[in-house]
Amino acid sequence: MTCRHAARKNGRKPLPKAGSDLASETTRIDLNLLLVFDMVMIERHVTRASIRLGLTQSAVSNALNRLRALFDDMLFVKAARGVEPTQRALVLWPEIHAALTQLQRSVRPGLFDPATSTIDFRISMVDLSAALLTPNLYRCIHEDAPGVSLSFVPHNPELTAERLVRGEVDFAISIEPPRMTVLEAIPLWSEGYVIAARKGHPMLDHPLSIDELCSLPQLHINLSGSPSSVSPVDAALQELGKSRPIKLVVNQFLVATTMLRESDLLAVLPMRLVADGFRQNWITFQPLPIALPEAALHLVWHKRNNGLQAMAWLKRKILDATTMLNADIKARIGG
């Protein structure tokens, strides 16, 4: 009795013949199934994946069932807001996603045409960046690509790298520079911090001393909401053995400017956020009494997108919009 016959008799799957069964497994893989797997990994939601693929939800569900049988794994489990990948899916996805991307480059080189494209780009950025950059960015894009759309994703600094790696967003605009070697970044702008308050605030009719800064009630912006997050100004004050009285913590820049206008709170903010309110004469500012590194904003993306014409085109449009914004900000503050 051969080993293969013995294995069948004992109920075990026989070992594959060298090369033959491996080739058989490869031919069982339907490229359309991998496209479904890739999109569900990106969206983490079956309905949203079906919409982006142009398929019915039942077709996507059937494809997932075939994938589960193919890989002998659940791949996705239901979660509160969609689905979560299993460990097996997380291991499979990077190479599958890279292979699909390379295949698209090979069979459709130079296919991206802004005038006819209907691609939906996704960018992660904070509300301040979106409010400042969107008017110029939309104009830059819509002039050349009327069918292209933009979707902004709420920005969480702690999740930025993971979202870029998983392909959930195409670009991120972040104060935090990338720490992963698979990510690249270029600076968009940098600027200093100021202490700001409503127009006519009695304490901002003169430059503040450090003691005054540490005695006046203030508003603080914590984008991630993490209790361990420490702002640059608080870190600098801690080195001096000092602290400031924080009376309100918000997670959005635009909420901060609204609260400044409606209260006597002060806030340490990037000059770019203050410029529009200063131009409209409802906010005032003074220089900080303590030296801080400038706040730098970076455009971040995954290296796998470097060969994609669509991504290179969007990057140029973001840089063009940034140039326009920088000129506008300089005009607003008279600098």
From TrEMBL:
Return the annotated region ranges for Disordered. 1-21
Keyword line: DNA-binding, Transcription, Transcription regulation
PROSITE patterns associated with the record: HTH_LYSR
Q: Where is the composition biased (Basic residues)?
A: 1-15
Which is a Pfam family this sequence falls into?
LysR_substrate
Q: Which CDD domains match?
A: PBP2_Nitroaromatics_like
Give an example GO molecular function.
Answer: DNA binding
Every HTH lysR-type domain range: 29-86
Name of this protein: LysR family transcriptional regulator
Entry superkingdom: Bacteria
| Keyword flag Transcription | yes
| Lineage, uppermost ranks | Bacteria, Pseudomonadati, Pseudomonadota, Alphaproteobacteria, Sphingomonadales
Family to which the UniProt record says this protein belongs:
Belongs to the LysR transcriptional regulatory family.
- Isomerase found in the keyword field: no
